[in-house]
Each structure stands twice: as structure tokens, then as C-alpha cells.
Amino acid sequence: MAAEGTLTVLAQVVISGVLLGAVYALLAIGLNLIFGVMRVINVAHGDLMMLGAYTTFWLFTLWGVSPLVSLVVAMALMFALGALLQRVVVERVVGQPLLVSLLLTFGLSSFLTGSALNLWTANYRSVPAYTGSLVVAGLAFSVPRVIAFGVALAITVLVYLFLKYARLGKAIRATSQNADVALVCGIDVARIRLLTFGLGTALAAAAGSLLAVIYTVYPEMGRTFLLKAFAIIVLGGLGSFGGAFLGALALGVAEALAAYAWTAQIAEGVAYLLLIVVLLARPSGLFGIRE
Fold first, then answer.
1. Domain map of the chain by residue range?
2. Nearest to 176 by CA among 16, 17, 20, 29
3. Is 176 exposed, middle or buried, given 0-12, 13-18 or 19+ CB atoms closer than 10 A?
């Protein structure tokens, strides 16, 4: 009976990690898209996610807007902000050494975090829109995580179908593979970069909105989740859409198991451990291609 109980608990922990991993995937896929098309390391990606989380928090707090509605608003606002940042700031470092883009976006990240601290203080806030748990086959699952998983999975599938079948999606993939050839073929590469950065930022905002109903919201949350996104990309493989998704699920499960076996503090270090191990054992990731 004890062994059966342990297996039940482990199953619940693993599934809980999978539910969270789907939200991580949104953040990682957006970051992967931006790097794939522009070869820019966007350190501000996590802070743009933070702005999406605050959009959901304030809409819920001030007007009682459902997070599922505010998610759409956050995605639209962050798409516009991302497009503006790409046109005014990021486009200037496209084609430059990676260190240049890293330093530029690090400065942008610091500006966004500092602005959030000044506007909203360092207080931790929450969006208690969904509470309770669902019991399925004797397993209890957090309602916020179940909802976040369903929405994250739906958005991921839509983005995958867009990239695979839509004309603009195919143009994004072509630009990612070879921008010069794409330009020769008549693709407006500058427009594709603008669209990609906006789309990546919108995905970050979606992740932030969903994380806001699971975790607390605070100005420096972006940096914590950005490091997890990097770990996911390294684990799944740079440029691999499916790899990023599976890597996110793997990280979610690994964190959940670590929190169950040890402590939540140790679980937070799992992303860094995976990052180091994969970089040493397989630098191209599980599904990536060596360049």
C-alpha cells in the first residue's frame, strides 16, 4: 500500500511538472524564434514577459478582467511594443557580433526592471482568479495549472501551424535558415524581423499572463524565468521548435521532482544544473543541429 501511495504521489508530481512545463515552452519558443531569425540574444525577453504578467495583474485588480481575456490584451500590447523596440533599437544590432546584442538587450532589461520597480515597487502581488483543484482518477491537480496548460498548449499548436503552413510562417522559417537567400527570393526580410520580434514578445507576454495566475508577480521575475528559458533552449536544441517544447516539459518535471524530493530552493537550481550538464555532454542540445 505504501509503494502504491508513493507511485500515486510521484505520478501527480510528474503531471504537475508537465502542466507547468507547457507555460515555460511559450517563453522559450518566443526566445528561440527571435534568435533563429535575427541572431540576437534578447536578454530583455524575460522583462517583456514580466510586463505581460503585470498587464494581467492590473486588469484583474482594477477592473476584474479575467486572465484569459487579459492574456489576449497583453499579447496585443506586447506585440506592438516588441515591434517598436525592434524597429527603433534592436534592428541596429542585427548582423553585429552576439556580444553587442547581448549588451544592448541587457541594458534594455535593466531599464524595464528599474522602471517597473519605480512604478509598482518591489512588492509581490498575485492574481487569485482561479483556486482549488481537480480530482481525476484519484489525482488532484491545481486548477490554475490545468487552465494555464490548456491555454499554453493551444497557443503553441497555433504558432506551430502558423509557422508550418501560413505564408508568413514559411517566410519566417526561410529567413531563419538563410536571410540572404530569402531576400533574393523576394521575401521582405526587414518586415519578417519586425513580425518575428513582435511574435516572440507576444509569446513572452502570454507566458507572463499564465504564470501570473500560478506564481506571484514582481518586477524582477523576468530574470528568473529568462534563465529557465535559456536552459530549455540549450536542452531542446537551438532552432528546434519541438525540442524547445519537449525541453520545457522536461524542465517542469525535473523541477517538480526536485521540489518533492528535496526543497523548492533546490528545485530552482535544477535549470542551471541541466544547463551545465547539457552544455558539457551535448552542446547542440537533444534535438538541435550543430552549426
1. 10-120+163-281
2. 29
3. buried
HSE-up of residue 250 (Cα within 13 Å, Cβ side): 22
Report pLDDT digits (tens) over 217-260. 999 999 999 989 998 988 887 777 888 898 899 899 999 888 88
Burial (0-12, 13-18, 19+ Cβ within 10 Å), 225: buried
pTM above 0.85, yes or no: yes
Q: How far apart are CA 236 and CA 286, in angstroms?
A: 5
25: β partners? none
pLDDT digits (tens, 9 = 90+) for 115-163: 999 999 999 999 999 988 888 777 788 899 999 999 999 999 999 999 9
Q: Which amino acid is at 117?
A: L
The cell numbers describing 260, all together, are 518533492
Nearest to 50 by CA among 207, 244, 199: 207
Q: d(Cα 207, Cα 248) in Å, to the nearest integer?
A: 12
Give the residue carrying C-alpha cell 524581423: 193
Distance CA 168, CA 28 (A): 21
